[in-house]
Amino acid sequence: MILNNHNHKPSPEEAPATPAGGTLLRVAITQGDTNGIGYELILKTFADNGMFELCIPVVYGSAKVATYHRKTLGMEMNFHIIRSAEEAVPGRLNLVNCIEEEVKVELGTPTPEAGLAAFKALEQATADLQAGLADVLVTAPICKASIQSDAFRFAGHTEYLQDRLGNGAEALMILSNSLMRVALVTTHLPLQKVPGSLSQDVILQKIHLLHQSLRRDFLLPAPRIAVLGLNPHNGDGGVLGSEEQNTIRPAIEAAVAEEIQCFGPYPADGFFGAGLYRHFDAVLAMYHDQGLAPFKALSMDDGVNFTAGLPFVRTSPDHGTAFDIAGKGLASPDSFRQAIFTAIDVYRHRKADDEAHRDPLQKLYHEHREDSDRQRHIQADKTE
């Protein structure tokens, strides 16, 4: 299998320096929906003291809500309440109290009040990330319906972060676990709108983003990418649809012409059923459930949602608010913990990649001469 080890736990020695010159990364963590399992994930993750050897956690949320969840779960861990991320200290579960008003907790129930609390935490964490007060962002699950307001008109975290942090850059959702990486051409989009949202240019752009992320964020020098078709059986020669022939295949061919190792399109059912994903570094799916259904079916517990393409690192667990088990102590922290590991890894990989390309070797004399000869040939070809 081509994948690197996604379950790698970075050591303190491997963690890059923070802007303040320390040895631990400052990880901004949003509380998510206050009626879901967000605080349970956070508390269970940092019940392991070894986590404090990897990072300085800074939770954004409500001190009163955090205390409520801690008591409900019967956990002994205390939060270190601070006014700003600048006050965060190592070895403690820091919490920026960014919600002053009372928030009623109704475990397992989506409410506008919980959505507003989730939004306020996300806004503050995002602002601090942009200001350099945090190194990476890890988000606990939100309820997409509850968080909607005049200030939040996005389909999910990915779209919000592209708007807030992208500076014009396009975001790419990549789901990663110990078995595979799956990226999506379309994300939180109704199924009926998917075909009309696909074009050769859009698919080629996503291939470029995925290829760039695999090289920089995962340090894979020559990644292999599999692209899925849209229709059953790849359209069966046009009988079940023509997107494979008219849109997807030309995008793949254009990527190959740019020396990207890109293959397909593959029928989704046979591709996953036969285990072909093992032969690739990443899979590009056309829509949400096409990629995420097999991804979660094959390996649910360690999945991480990574927002690639942006100048900042953001990850999250690959599951939702789990309202059905909220407050019952049944939530597994594995995916959330892995999201923290992945954020640290990606941050470190980007630093290493930037360092490797910062000061390229000066060209030797014969290389300058070869460039000059090549330029003369190009000019001569144009005049003929």
Q: Return the string of H and E elements.
A: EHEHEEHEHEEHHEHEHEHEEHH
Structural classification: alpha/beta
Strand content: 15-25%
CA radius of gyration: 23 Å
Q: Are there runs of 5+ residues with pLDDT below 50, and where?
A: 4-21, 378-384
Distance between the termini: 50 Å
Q: Would you count the extended β strands for me?
A: 12
Instruction: Please name the CATH architecture of the largest domain.
Output: 3-Layer(aba) Sandwich
- What is the count of DSSP helices, taking H or I runs of 4+ residues? 11
Largest sheet: 12 strands, mixed
pLDDT averaged residue by residue: 89
| CATH topology type of the largest domain | Isopropylmalate Dehydrogenase
Name of the CATH class of the largest domain: Alpha Beta
The spatial strand order of the largest sheet comes to 3-4-2-1-5-12-11-6-7-10-8-9
Outline type? globular
In the residues, how many domains can be counted? 2
User: Could you state the CATH homologous superfamily of the largest domain?
Assistant: Isopropylmalate Dehydrogenase
Helicity range: 25-40%
How do you describe this structure in short?
Helices cover 38% and strands 16% of the residues. With 384 residues, it is α/β, with parallel strands linked by helices. The protein has two domains: 7-169 and 309-384, 3-Layer(aba) Sandwich (Isopropylmalate Dehydrogenase), CATH 3.40.718; 180-298, 3-Layer(aba) Sandwich (Isopropylmalate Dehydrogenase).
